[in-house]
Amino acid sequence: SICYLDGQYLPLEQARVSPMDRGFLFGDGGYEVIPVYSRRPFRLEEHIVRLGHTLAAIGLPDPHSAAEWAAIVREIVARNDWQDQSVYLQVTRGADDKRNHAFPAEVRPTVFLMSDALVTPSVAQLESGVAAVSAADFRWLRCDLKTIALLANCLLRQQAVAQGCAETILFRDGFLTEGAASNIFIVRDGVMLTPPKSHLMLPGITYDVVLELAQRHGLAHEVREILEDEVRAADEIWMTSSTKEVLAITTLDGRPVGSGRPGPVGRQMHAWYQDFKNTVMRG
Ligand code: PMP
After folding, report:
1. Looking at the structure, do residues 199 and 100 belong to the same domain, yes or no?
2. Looking at this predicted complex, what is its ipTM?
3. Domain with 134 in it
4. Is residue 241 scored above 80 in pLDDT?
5. TM spans, by residue (predicted)?
6. CA–CA separation, 245 vs 270, rounded Å?
7. Which of 50, 88, 51 is nearest to 197 (CA)?
8. Number of separate helices (H) and strands (E) present in the chain
9. CATH code of residue 67
10. Domain C-terminal end among 83, 117, 151
């Protein structure tokens, strides 16, 4: 595949960065993953705005304007073969000649983008849902930033995979935060619930779309703190992300969620999401 590195488009296997890059040494950078349907980036502006928030919050000068970012993303899409892609974009604080925690005086960020075929959930996963485990959320207190320092998220996701599951649902101090790499929605008595945005979770682009769709279609919903016990007693649990879209979680820690099958509200939301995606793609 073709990637982008600091101004150049080149085959991924030819791309090289310095081992002194602060992304490599410190996980010092931000990133985005942008889904592309029929060669059209979905919610591109929102992803670029979120990247801007991340970079501003970590004091990393944004190397590009929104228009420049959009142009680079579109070029990566055009140069790769797939109709549906998942574009990965990362910015690190760049390479210094010494390893210092403090920022180098001259900051020259490293910009890297690559693309792959977009893999959304399979028909089997949509029909059966997926299994999840739970864990204590031991991440830092700036989970609202999309930084490349993802060791905690990797360890937490691996806990799920090691048990043959797809996701780890995180609880902090008895409350739901999110998944290791997704936001979480539940349904109780026909009402869709999800936690409010805070420093404890990533403000998901898909989370926003799902809330917009609930609003538009008049689905009863509440954005509020959710107790761990409410999640365990939920009729439905879904995970949402740019690549998983809206995916039912049908077992949690080995116990069935509700009926143990994807529920009616989640099926409806998945259908609304697909419709919305298709409208945007045609428009
Ligand atoms: N939370 C975390 C921790 C994530 O890594 C992701 C996926 N990037 C999400 C939520 C979902 O965000 P989005 O809908 O923007 O993909």
Report:
1. no
2. 0.99
3. 123-282
4. yes
5. none
6. 8
7. 50
8. 8, 15
9. 3.30.470.10
10. 117
The total domain count for the chain is 2
244 a catalytic residue = no
Centroid of ligand 1 to alpha carbon of 201 (angstroms) = 9
Residue 139 shares a structural domain with residue 277: yes
On whether both 186 and 239 belong to a single domain, the answer is: yes
Q: Which residues pair with 185 in a beta bridge?
A: 238
Model-level pTM greater than 0.90?
A: yes
Q: Say which amino acid occupies 60.
A: L
State residue 283's pLDDT score. 63
Contacts made by residues 255-263, CB under 8 angstroms, sequence distance 24+: 257/129, 258/234, 259/235, 261/128, 261/129, 262/126, 262/127, 262/128, 262/129, 262/236, 263/187, 263/235, 263/236
How close is the Cα of 98 to the center of ligand 1, in Å? Answer: 33
Ligand 1 atom closest to the Cα of residue 243 is 16
Each residue's pLDDT tens digit, 26-42? 999 999 999 999 999 99
Of all protein residues, whose CA lies closest to atom 12 belonging to ligand 1? 204
204 touches ligand 1 (CB under 6 Å): yes
Shared domain for 249 and 129, answered yes or no, is: yes
